[in-house]
Amino acid sequence: MGRWVADERMRFMTSLLENPTPILFAGILAEAVLAVFLVQTRRGVLIVAMVGVLLATIAGVVIERVVVTDRERVEATLDDAVTALSDNDLPGVLARLSSQADRTRQRATWAMGRLRFTSVSIRGLDITINQLTSPPTAEARFTGVAYFRDLRGESPYEHYAARFVVELELEGDQWRITDHVENDLSSAWGREE
């Protein structure tokens, strides 16, 4: 029970550092309550409290912007890989892979040798970080959609959609992709990698 509570507290704190909405909501709510009290009581000391809440809210948003969490760094690695794939930049894709990612490297090299991508996107991204491993690892689950042109003209399809599970590992100060599983959602090659 104690471990679960600690995990929930950590998840809550991490979410505050990844999204300014709760901080802004709390600041606006506190300002509104103080404004109502100020109108009702006409006590000038409440203006000082309102300034304090405003400064605390601004500080919270600044901290949220400055602190980059592991989840945000994993997301940036995936975004960089998607951008490189969209740009048909094989070295850029391979730069996001760990030296251990043999299967993923082979799949990327095969796909980029055969296809010219026109658009690549990920949706429904869910990232889980495991700090208990050494080095830390992460798992990203998402739906990937790619539009492409088959350079050999052998595929009648121009798009591919799959549900991905991507494993990453922290190497030095960079998150690198170590493996992936893709479950085909379209009829493009109808296989699981």
Summarize the structure.
This protein is an alpha+beta fold and 193 residues long. 49% of the residues lie in helices and 28% in strands. The longest helix is centred in the first third of the chain and has 22 residues.
Radius of gyration: 23 Å
The beta-strand count equals 4
One letter per element, helices H and strands E, the order comes to: HHHHHHEEEE
Low-confidence stretches: 1-7, 188-193
How is the largest sheet built, in terms of strand order? 1-2-3-4
What structural class do you assign from the helix and strand content? alpha+beta
* Biggest sheet character: 4 strands, antiparallel
Shape: elongated
Instruction: Determine the mean pLDDT.
Output: 86
Number of helices: 6
Terminal residue distance: 38 Å
Oligomer: single chain
Strand content: 25-35%
Q: State the share of residues found in helices, binned by percent.
A: 40-55%
Description:
It contains six helices and four strands. The chain is an alpha+beta fold. The longest helix has 22 residues, at 45-66. Mean pLDDT is 86; it is low at 1-7 and 188-193.
For the structure shown, list the relevant keywords.
elongated, 6 helices, disordered C terminus, four-stranded antiparallel sheet, 193 residues, alpha+beta, disordered N terminus
Layout of secondary structure:
Blueprint lengths: L1 H17 L2 H21 L3 H22 L3 H17 L3 H5 L7 H13 E16 L6 E14 L8 E13 L2 E11 L9
Helix pairs in contact: 2-3
